[in-house]
Amino acid sequence: MIQLLFAVVFAEMTLILLLLFKTPLRRAVILGLDRTKRSHGPVVVKTVAGTVALVLGSSLYSVRRIYRRRALEGDANPTDQILMTTHLLEATLMGAILSLGLMIDRLHHYIRELRFRRRGMEDITKQNRALQDEKEKVIRGMEEEVSELRTKLKYLQSDLSTKTEKASVAEASVVALRKQSEGLLLEYDRLLEENQKFQKQVRVLDQRLSRSGSKKVM
User: Fold this and answer.
1) Does this model's pTM top 0.85?
2) Domain spans, the chain
């Protein structure tokens, strides 16, 4: 019984050492514990732990009974001493087994939680990288669009300056044509006045000629 308890204690200590240090066997131990905690594994572990706790209680009760009997009798019986020592050793080993088992369970839980958080952090890091890449792509697209808009703006400014120059030339031509038309109108008015004067002179000459002709006939 004691040899079995020692073997279990050493086995649990070995598992704890394997869980504490990052070795190639650590992953295998974690996978084995994961499988143990699935399906009927927790029920079996709780049953074994309950049985060990009952045996531990029985050993402690036997130690107490032997101690009370020694106190009543007052004699140091070698058989009782051996039994008491044996029960104390068994109780100590079973207490160590329960404590180490609880420690293994907590270590396994913390390792799984740590791995889960690391995976979560890796996922968050990947998401941040993806968002950063998407942001950089958007920024590059916006920069290209701004560059294209600047090129179009320069083209429009050049086109606008060209059309402004053409408009200025056309406006100057319009002003020149307007002045020319005003000069032509003034010349037309002058010629019209001269024509009217000439017609008056022609009428006067016609009247004179008609008068001189009538005197000759008489």
Assistant:
1) no
2) 1-135
